[in-house]
Design brief:
The protein is α/β, with parallel strands linked by helices. The chain has three domains: 32-129, Orthogonal Bundle (Fumarate Reductase Iron-sulfur Protein, Chain B, domain 2), CATH 1.10.1060.10; 144-239 and 390-447, 3-Layer(bba) Sandwich (FAD/NAD(P)-binding domain), CATH 3.50.50.60; 242-378, FAD/NAD(P)-binding domain (3-Layer(bba) Sandwich), CATH 3.50.50.60. 33% of the residues lie in helices and 19% in strands. Helix 4 (60-68) crosses helix 7, helix 12 packs across helix 13 and helix 13 packs parallel to helix 14 (318-326).
């Protein structure tokens, strides 16, 4: 029998089968029997704190009761009526700090209900076994809405606007729809091309057209959209990344974490994605964790995550931090990048130890060096506002009012790019949904 092919690109004896296994589901889905048994633990609280903790206000006790009575389609409709992207959110939501954290069973002696896994079971079962869409459109209003960006906020907005009877055209810069769900989430969280499955399901409502390769400020403009549509929704997210501001930052082997994740997600053979032996990840959010864990699972010998503050200040959840450690990622705290070492390719990085003095983070004279043949930067993203002429921006975010409207009449916004935005897929979905209702009210008022 011939041996399994190895990851020859990276020069290590990782078989293709091993790498594929490394990028299988992070959480194994529940079967029907497991889902019923788990749902039977729910107390069906009258004043359920889990509903309050869910940004999209899913009626969690109801859908869990529906699963318990084997009404899986009913459970899915309960979820999807509030969160049309409930399948993705079930996979990537930090349930440990949202609905599951406030579950009344969450204690030192008992585990909370596995709400995320139950939600995934219901939605996945429905989408895989039903050819018809669970919702229908209202009578056509004759109004046409433009949406910039086919990410979670834009897709959610489009779906709800279509239900309300409006025609929708989404203008997406990339070749595929999905935004963060398609390009920015860890591969082991979104297996089996789920992002595109969900997009296809969502579009089945009808009334939505997506135009790809539409780049704001290049072949499309905000002014054009305003002139040719009755309302506009901006759901572009935070598309630009920050630099370290160090010399030699352009050496071979240094790149943005989001670019690395996109390459990995779009690769049909992950064994062919190049990875270093000594990988440094700079950052402290969930993206930093995602890229560090994936680097390790690709076969990097040493992966070190570097953060300038302490673990309490990391924006990644405790679960994600523990996931990194369980995947043998080393975490170096109170360390700030100081000097990149190398000629044409990066070979090491020098780090300054940091301290808090008088409330300020300061570097010390204490330095140390870590060998590196790859550095991945996960230090945050920012808004590209170059094509948003006339839209008020403050501290790098779009300013909206309580109705999701920007400073331009008839132009609305939601998701990561707005001043109230959070870096959560589920919040972007909620923004899109609420903005659709706000635009519907605006368009109805305009008719009077």
């Amino acid at each position: 029998m011939a041996p399994e092919p190895c990851n020859t690109v990276n020069g290590r004896p990782l078989t293709t089968a091993k790498i594929n296994n490394n990028f299988d589901n992070l959480h194994k889905p529940l079967n029907l029997q497991q889902a019923i048994a788990e749902s039977d633990r729910c107390l069906y609280c009258y004043d359920a704190p889990c509903i309050q903790a869910c940004p999209t206000s899913i009626d969690i006790p109801t859908f869990i009761h529906q699963i318990r009575t084997e009404n899986i389609n009913g459970a899915a409709k309960t979820i999807l009526s509030q969160n049309i992207m409930g399948g993705t959110c079930a996979r990537v939501c930090p349930t440990e700090v949202l609905c599951e954290e406030v579950c009344v069973l969450n204690s030192a002696v008992e585990q909370p209900i596995e709400i995320g896994l139950l939600q995934r079971h219901a939605v996945d079962s429905f989408i895989s076994h039903n050819d018809t869409h669970p919702f229908t459109r209202q009578k056509d209003t004759g109004k046409h809405i433009a949406i910039i960006g086919a990410g979670p906020a834009g897709l959610s907005c489009a779906h709800r606007a279509a239900i309300l009877g409006h025609q929708v055209t989404i203008y997406e810069a990339k070749a595929k729809s999905g935004g963060l769900n398609e390009y920015g989430l860890a591969a082991y969280k979104m297996v089996d091309d789920w992002a595109q499955t969900e997009v296809d399901f969502l579009l089945a409502i009808g009334g939505i057209t997506i135009k790809h390769d539409q780049i704001m400020g290049d072949n499309i403009s905000l002014q054009y959209l305003q002139q040719n549509h009755d309302a506009v929704f901006i759901g572009i997210g935070l598309g630009q990344t920050y630099n370290l501001g160090l010399e030699k930052e352009n050496l071979t082997g240094i790149s943005d974490a989001v670019d690395f994740i996109e390459t990995l997600r779009q690769s049909t053979d992950k064994a062919q994605v190049k990875i270093g032996n000594d990988v440094i990840v700079i950052g402290a959010g969930n993206t930093a964790i995602d890229v560090a864990v994936q680097a390790k699972r690709l076969g990097a010998e040493n992966v070190t995550l570097v953060y300038r503050r302490g673990e309490e200040q990391m924006s990644a959840t405790e679960y994600e931090v523990n996931l990194a450690r369980s995947n043998d990622v080393h975490i170096k705290l109170w360390s700030a990048p100081a000097t990149i070492i190398g000629d044409t390719e990066v070979t090491a990085i020098e780090l300054n130890k940091t301290i808090i003095k008088d409330g300020k983070l300061l570097p010390t004279d204490d330095t140390y060096t870590i060998k590196a043949d790859m550095i991945l930067k996960a230090i945050g993203q920012k808004l590209n506002n170059s094509a948003l002429k006339g839209v008020s921006i403050e501290r790098g975010k779009i300013i909206i009012n309580k109705n999701y409207e920007t400073s331009l009449k008839g132009v609305f916004a939601g998701g990561d790019a707005i001043n109230t935005g959070e870096d959560l897929t589920v919040q972007a979905v909620e923004d899109g949904k609420q903005a659709a209702h706000a635009m519907d009210a605006y368009l109805t008022q305009e008719e009077k």
